[in-house]
Amino acid sequence: MATENDLGLLTDLYQLTMAQAYFQNRRTESATFSLFVRAYPANRGYFVSAGLEDVLEFLEGFSFDSTAIDYLYSLNLFADDFLDFMKSLRFTGEVWAIPEGRLFFKDEPIVEVTAPIIEAQIVETFIINQINLQSLIATKAARCVHAARSRAVVDFSLRRTHGIDAGMKVARASYLAGFAGTSNVRAGRRYRIPVVGTMAHSFVSSHEREIDAFRNFVKSFPNNSILLIDTYNTLAGARNAVAVGKEMASRGERLRGVRIDSGDLATLAREVRKIFDTAGMRHVRITGSGGLDEFDLAEFSDANVPYDSYGVGTKMGVSGDAPWTDIAYKLVEYDGRPVLKLSTGKTSWPGRKQVCRLRDVKGQLKNDFVTRRDENVPDAEPLLKEVMAQGKTLAPLPSLEQSRAAFLEEFGSLPDAMKSIRNPEHYSVEFSAALKELRDAVERKVAGAE
After folding, report:
1. What's the pTM value of the predicted model, to 2 decimals?
2. Residue that finishes a domain, picked among 233, 263, 288
3. pLDDT tens per residue, range 297-353
């Protein structure tokens, strides 16, 4: 996350123009906003919650420093009394949220923010930005992990993610959703994620002979060498790797693996596997990379292609087949009055809410109920937890490892039909009778007022 002192400015202009109108019209009462996704992208049947840690960190430090206020003055748009008010503005509200690593589904509130309306309004943009990106990537990564069927998957996406912040968050979100590690060294240090890497084609082509490149590399990394074998001819590269592997064995060392990054990846993996097995080097593992995502991994798994692990980059790092979600942050209560939106195709549910999750007798996820906040659904787990009050995080959040473990456990309980890479079945989400009654009452009131 960016650490500049002007992070309060990371909002849309209309949040600030509304804030001034609220301020000057003395509409400063408490408001509740609900964050949810309206629809599934193609081939999606679930989402993975991610990004809450950054949201809470932002809210705790929310402010406008002197340079930010000076910039707003320079726009000649805002009144002096409003900007004086903004100098001391802090987030003082509460947040209820689904913890990171948990599954959620369309129309379910992921985060609900209650605060004086100016505070709750201005922070909308940042909250959407972080939850949208990180949940989108965590969901894409979860699909890759599922498609790989127990083979390790590593994040190779940094060079093609959409900027530095995205690159960091992709590494974190993909690890949360089951990736084994990342090539991103900075993310490795910051989030304590295992870092993984091999070599590039440039290392091979900088030598006159491929085998000399291999020899020089294993000389530097005798216990951790994975050779890239497709720079010229993949099968010839595999044979050179065999020769180097045998030289290593004579020194008491062991070649760890090879990587294939281009060509007919399925056919080449089978041929390379034969070369190593025939040479008595069954221990050498094969990594596949090069434009892969869950659709490729599922095909390889179905065909029993002998890859031991995968490096997944661009298509995961930008969620290539579904690069956005229809995520919304809507006002659901103002000054104790439940409100909603009735725009065609963009309706919302009024009031503060809870998501209650039921499991069957085998522990499998059964269905969810979206209810009013104070409702109780017998035998159901309430997912939205109060994580912030009076602008302060209530307790330390689970570690990344704990959130990852929570994801793996819950994902294992999701029926396979809903994990399908193509055309998944959709999980049942129902709305309680009390919430429906509230919505009907608010609709009638709105119709009467209009």
Report:
1. 0.95
2. 288
3. 999 999 999 999 999 999 999 999 999 999 999 999 999 999 988 877 777 899 999
Q: What total number of domains does the chain contain?
A: 2
Q: Is residue 308 part of a domain?
A: no
Domain that holds residue 401: 7-137+322-449
Q: Is residue 442 one of the residues assigned to a domain?
A: yes
Whether residue 211 sits in one domain with residue 133: no
pLDDT for residue 177: 98
Three-state helix/strand/coil letters over the chain: CCCCCCHHHCCCHHHHHHHHHHHHCCCCCEEEEEEEECCCCCCCCCEECCCHHHHHHHHHCCCCCHHHHHHHHHCCCCCHHHHHHHHCCCCCCEEEECCCCCEECCCCCCEEEEEEHHHHHHCHHHHHHHHHHHHHHHHHHHHHHHHHCCCEEEECCHHHCCCHHHHHHHHHHHHHCCCCEECCHHHHHHHCCCECCCCCHHHHHCCCCHHHHHHHHHHHCCCCCEEECCCCCHHHHHHHHHHHHHHHHHCCCCCCEEEECCCCHHHHHHHHHHHHHHCCCCCCEEEECCCCCHHHHHHHHHCCCCCCEEEECHHHHCCCCCCCCCEEEEEEEECCEECCCCCCCCCCCCCCEEEEEEECCCCCEEEEEEEECCCCCCCCEECCEEEEECCEECCCCCCHHHHHHHHHHHHHCCCHHHCCCCCCCCCCEEECHHHHHHHHHHHHHHHHHC
pLDDT tens digits for 57-81? Answer: 999 999 999 999 999 999 999 999 9
